[in-house]
């Protein structure tokens, strides 16, 4: 989610300005909207609805877009079933990013999980399985620049599925 998305039909659907699609909100995550601007009543309690971020890339540079998937793996996310739901949604998203010929779009993908620490995954296709880098110092966060943290989707989709 990002702040640019709009809620419609009293919070039952949301509009994505990037892909232009109107999507249903699963009943487990439904909350009504308040006022003419269509603001959800739980906006302040759900940081993903107000502090999500996105970047519009300059397509003239010829660089592939990047998608960093950040997943909450805390105990509360596990107990509440949110982790299972999110992983299903991510699989659907990545599968929808395939072209009609079966090839994946030219997008670089990174995977990050977090609880009290941050876990970054090296998704390099040369590896038999993803390697995890754990960052325990989150006060003054400096993410490492390493090969394998952002990999073309076509090279890592099977690793992410596993």
Automatic annotation (TrEMBL):
Ranges of residues in domain Sec23/Sec24 trunk: 68-161
GO cellular component, one term: endoplasmic reticulum exit site
GO annotation terms (biological process): COPII-coated vesicle cargo loading; intracellular protein transport
InterPro entries the record matches: Sec23/24_trunk_dom (IPR006896), SEC23_SEC24_subfamily (IPR050550), vWFA_dom_sf (IPR036465), Znf_Sec23_Sec24_sf (IPR036174)
GO molecular function, one term: SNARE binding
Pfam families: Sec23_trunk (PF04811)
Signal peptide annotation: none
Transmembrane residue ranges: none
Protein name according to UniProt: Protein transport protein Sec24C-like
């Amino acid at each position: 989610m990002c702040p640019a998305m709009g809620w419609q039909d009293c919070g039952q659907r949301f509009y994505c300005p990037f892909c232009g699609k109107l999507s249903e909100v699963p009943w487990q995550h439904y909350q009504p909207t308040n006022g003419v601007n269509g603001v959800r009543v739980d906006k302040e309690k759900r940081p993903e609805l107000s502090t999500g971020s996105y970047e519009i890339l300059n397509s003239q540079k010829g660089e592939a877009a990047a998608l960093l998937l950040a997943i909450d793996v805390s105990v509360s996310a596990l107990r509440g079933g949110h982790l299972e739901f999110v992983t299903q949604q991510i699989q659907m998203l990545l599968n929808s990013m395939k072209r009609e010929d079966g090839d994946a779009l030219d997008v670089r993908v990174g995977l990050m999980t977090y609880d009290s620490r941050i876990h970054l995954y090296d998704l390099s296709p040369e590896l038999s399985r993803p390697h995890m880098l754990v960052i325990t110092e989150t006060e003054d966060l400096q993410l490492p620049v390493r090969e394998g943290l952002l990999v073309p989707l076509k090279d890592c989709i099977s690793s992410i599925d596993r």
